[in-house]
User: Fold this.
Amino acid sequence: MQGGCICGAVRYRLKTDPMFVHCCHCTWCQRETGSAFGVNALVETSNIEILIGAPEPVATPSASGKGQTIVRCQSCRTAVWSHYHGSGPKIGFVRVGTLDHPHDVKPDVHIFTASRRPWVNLANEKNVFEEYYDPEALWPEDSKIRRAAISG
Assistant:
């Protein structure tokens, strides 16, 4: 999978499929995206290959109070992925909307749905949580192995 920012100054390639995909309905993601939710594909940072450009890491506040680093295009400021404090710099939360074919990536889980917009219908979704979830209960075994390999 390949993707990039809106102006084309940053292009990247994922060298592997995502470990898991979050659709986050928290008010912070709503504010950051200017939309009803944020969709993030979790990939080892070592499997994000920058093809063009030099995206800039920007320290940003987060709901946890511990902050996150959002990696942005230096020209158009599009957020292409981020690193959350809890996962550290080894996992990139790739913004699915920056992929060339975002419709090919479906969320594995909907989180923080207690603050979802009332018109977002999740009745047909299987993994829906008002807050966060237990990754050990939902992640596929191969993704757990990948996460363990980068956790040390």
